Amino acid sequence: MTHMQEIIAKASALPWPDERTLRLDLAVAFRLAADFGWTESVGNHFSAVVSPGEGTFLMNPRWQHFSTIRASELLLLNWNDTGTMQRPNPPDRSGWCIHSQLHAALPHARVVLHIHPCYATALAGLADPSLKPIDQVTARFWDRVAIDLEFEQVSTTEAEGRRLASVIGEHSVLMMGNHGVTVAAETVAHAFEELYLFERACRTMVLAYGTGQPLNVMSDAIAAVTSRGWDGCREMAVSHFEQLKAKIIRQDPSVAE
Question: In whole angstroms, how large is the CA radius of gyration of the chain?
Answer without folding.
Answer: 18
